[in-house]
Amino acid sequence: xxxxxxxxxxxxxxxxxxxxxxxxxxxxxxxxxxxxxxxxxxxxxxxxxxxxxxxxxxxxxxxxxxxxxxxxxxxxxxxxxxxxxxxxxxxxxxxxxxxxxxxxxxxxxxxxxxxxxxxxxxxxxxxxxxxxxxxxxxxxxxxxxxxxxxxxxxxxxxxxxxxxxxxxxxxxxxxxxxxxxxxxxxxxxxxxxxxxxx
Length: 198
Description:
The chain has one domain (2-191). 38% of the residues lie in helices and 11% in strands. It has seven helices and eight strands. It has a two-stranded parallel ribbon. β4 and β5 (93-94) form a beta hairpin. α1 packs antiparallel against α7 and α6 crosses α7 (181-191). The longest helix is centred in the N-terminal third of the chain and has 17 residues, at 16-32. The chain is globular. The termini are far apart.
């Protein structure tokens, strides 16, 4: 389930068909997602308002992400991960002990775009969305990205930008969060989508 990222070429598109698939999904999502003029800072954001790591079976959501990503797509029997994967934001080798868990759609951005109005349960579910919004990445890259949205930050390797954009859009659509005009344009460019309808 977590490795559905590959469907959108997050780990790099292997050939024209994979690239076209990511671009096609991006076009569909870009036509679906709600677009607002800009991100407006809403006072009161605090990471604690999204709760801690929830339990996913015997593991925490953080552990479940590591176990699945570092377990070749299947959760490891223990709540940890082993081995090496390609960092989904850089393509570099990544080991579990050097990984942070990133919220693709940042919590602070979600707060500004509408999560401030959610109840505590919905915010916690969003923060622990293992299927869509949580990915392991290098600590330094996670800090660099911080709470930036696609107009401000995309993976440096161009080949990873469309997959990241598709993942971001999947989260936005699933959780009914909007994107700014600038974010929409950045993701459209990353995926080679030329026009904006409506």
